[in-house]
Amino acid sequence: TAWEYGYSIDVLGRLVEVISGQTFDVFLKERLFDPLGMNDTAFHVPPEKHDRLVTLYSPIAEGGVRVATSRAQDSYKEPALFLSGGGGLVSSTMDYARFCQMLLNEGNLDGAQILGKKAVELMRTDHLGDIPKKGYLIARDGIGFGLTFAITKDPGQSGAIDSKGVYRWGGAAGTRFWIDPEEDMFCVFMVNILPYGSLNYGDEFKLLAYQAIVE
């Protein structure tokens, strides 16, 4: 009766395990990360890469940020207890960029065919139609949801400075990415603030990126 962001992608992760006969981390490594050369993406950071793990920050009431004291800072230094389909991977900006480029290329990157063209088209197509939307994540008019992505159906209704057909999502600590087939572009915005709350750095970055397009 309504769309609401929840645990559906975690359920999909478990279905992958059942159908493939592999644990989710092994499936992702063999089918996605290794073919795409995403060498810094996994459910935890091995000891030899601990010095590259970025610092997690938390906002402070008077403005600015401080180094976070939550367990989230060091949790990635240990093997994951739960291989989540909906979150939990640690990655690098370039790995994330290669993933986005594969999607922009309709499933292919450097000769590695990860997805079929029609599969990507289905993923970036709105599947909600007129179904009511709960929560704040895609509450605006003109925004729909595909297969794991928010979809810009109508920039005029949404008020977003992007293109019809842009698909996107973000992370709990403020990361953002979007893919724009019309402009043949993708953008990755990395920040590490938890809770991210009402901070709008990602929105400001998106505005600047589109303002830079002059032809």
Supply database-style keywords.
two-stranded antiparallel ribbon, 215 residues, alpha+beta, five-stranded antiparallel beta sheet, 14% strand
Would you mind describing this structure in some detail?
The longest helix has 13 residues, at 8-20. The chain has helices spanning 8-20, 24-36, 93-104, 117-123, 155-158, 201-211, and strands at residues 57-59, 65-67, 108-109, 112-113, 143-145, 150-152, 167-170, 176-180, 185-189. Strand 1 (57-59) and strand 2 form a beta hairpin. The strands form three sheets. Strands 5-6-7-8-9 form a five-stranded antiparallel sheet, with helices on both faces. A two-stranded antiparallel ribbon has the order 1-2. Helix content is 28%, strand content 14%. It starts with 7 loop residues before the first helix and ends with a helix. With 215 residues, the chain is an alpha+beta fold.
